[in-house]
Amino acid sequence: MRILAFSDLHCDRGAAQALVDAAAGADLVVGAGDFATAHRGLAETMDALKPLESKAVYVPGNNETTAALRAATRARVLHGETIEIGGLAIAGIGGAVPPLPPLPWRSHDLTEDEAEAMLAPVERADLLICHSPPEGIADRLEDGRGIGSTALRAAIARIRPRLAVCGHIHACWGEEGRIGGTRVVNLGPGPNWFDL
Which SUPFAM superfamilies match (predicted)? Predict the structure, then answer.
């Protein structure tokens, strides 16, 4: 399956249009969260992505809630669920894990325990879509601090998907690493292509 994946549009309609233009060759489109900016601009961003809805799977970021994302699109939205598409098992979890420091707006966050509990029922996935990166891979802020999730790292090691994609940490867009046999990639807003 040919997969087009991205994260962190943050209301960038030009980037959204570039994804729509690129998606003609995709069997599946994956969005790893942060379509909005501080809960603003979600409807406009999802309207720009409307042509992708029939073949898209999204997770919420920390800039929009799960409920708001589900209300703004007809695409499939995962947050603690697993679905099967074209023979691929796809699991997803959104939000910032672990929670961010206090912001002037309310971030959509999960504690490590909440993320662990949400992913505990997932026994198998070929593709894991996360907004936050796992601890130790593409998780460093510009000041060098790592803020990746221990729960996501443990879930990837346990579930062993072929591919795990994330976003959230803008300074690490394009970076990747491995957890066991799983390729982990921090996407960013441009088109990223994968074959599964």
Answer: Metallo-dependent phosphatases (SSF56300)
pLDDT, tens only, 89-104: 999 999 999 999 888 9
- CB-CB contact of 97 with 149 (8 Å): yes
Instruction: Report the alpha-carbon distance of residue 79 to residue 55 in Å, rounded.
Output: 17
Which DSSP string do the residues of 45-110 spell out, in sequence order? HHHHTGGGGGGEEE---SSS-HHHHHHH-SSEE-SSEEEEETTEEEEEE-SBSSPPSP-SS---B-
Give the DSSP H/E element, type plus range, for residue 31: strand 28-31
pTM value is 0.97
Q: Pick out the chain residues at pLDDT < 50.
A: none
Pairing type for strands 163-166 and 182-186 reads parallel
What pLDDT does 24 receive? 94
| Average per-residue pLDDT for the chain | 97
Please, what are the domains in the chain?
Answer: 2-195 (3.60.21.10)
